[in-house]
From TrEMBL:
Domain DUF403: from-to ranges: 10-237
Protein name (database record): DUF403 domain-containing protein
UniProt xrefs under Pfam families: Alpha-E
Residues annotated as signal peptide: none
Protein's organism: Heterosigma akashiwo
Lineage: superkingdom: Eukaryota
Length: 249
């Protein structure tokens, strides 16, 4: 549990929240008072509440730790909502959105690949875990009731472009935002776009019939998304090659 605290390194939740706060501090004049307050409170309250749990005698109760994480998750959702609802849809917003979709695609693809690779997808816990991670439990039950089958699961989590957590929706949004961001250099954009994943076009029958095929598609998609992140960093944030690129004035 102590690994969640900021001092545990760059992989800890606490460290990430402090990094978010530090970035927000650097952009303080560009943030609304509400957005800044949300970010500051999220980082401060997470560490405060977690330390309060850890300072109690004996092993920390798992329920209390999960409550601290759930509270932070709610705060992060509020931060995302403020960004989505209030930011001008300029190149800065597009870059932020692309980053969010890249992170989501990589994480969800890795979770889905690992669950199927370990043969856990059709177990009760594994099935529930996937739906929970993709925030699609209610949607799945509404569409498929209590069926625990691979084809409907993959349809919802991979193909369904009406589900904002599916790989298809995430990848399509990522491609669209990238096309607008890179609209001033269509040649470069076309070359990059050709290498981006299109999960909604993967043949569902093949995915459902072979875990190996599914895992290969997922790992390739995660690698392609990570490559896009590197290319964007090189294009817009590297200062040693090419012409200067500014995302906003």
């Amino acid at each position: 549990v102590t690994a969640l605290l900021p001092g545990s390194g760059v992989t800890s939740v606490g460290w990430d929240l402090r990094a978010l706060q530090s970035c927000a501090q650097a952009l303080r004049e560009r943030l609304s008072p509400e957005a800044w307050r949300l970010i500051h409170e999220t980082a401060a309250q997470f560490e405060q509440h977690l330390r309060a749990v850890l300072d109690r005698p004996g092993p920390p109760p798992l329920t209390d730790v999960l409550n601290v994480l759930a509270r932070a998750d709610t705060h992060l959702a509020a931060i995302t909502g403020a960004q989505t609802d209030r930011m001008t849809r300029d190149d800065g917003w597009r870059l932020l959105s692309i980053g969010r979709q890249i992170e989501r695609l990589c994480f969800h693809a890795d979770v889905l690949a690992e669950t199927f690779a370990q043969g856990l997808a059709l177990t009760e816990d594994g099935f529930a875990l996937l739906l929970g991670v993709f925030d699609s439990t209610i949607t799945y039950r509404a569409q498929f009731q209590a069926r625990r089958e691979v084809p409907p699961l993959l349809h919802l989590l991979v193909h369904d472009t009406d589900n904002p957590r599916s790989l298809g929706w995430v990848a399509r949004t990522m491609r669209e935002r990238f096309a607008k961001l890179a609209r001033h250099d269509p040649g470069w954009a076309a070359d990059i776009a050709a290498g981006l994943p299109v999960p909604e076009a993967w043949p569902l029958a093949e995915l459902a019939a072979s875990d190996q095929v599914l895992v290969e598609h997922l790992k390739r998609a995660a690698a392609q998304a990570a490559e896009l992140s590197s290319l964007l960093s090189q294009r817009y944030f590297a200062h040693v090659i090419g012409a200067e690129q500014r995302v906003w004035q």
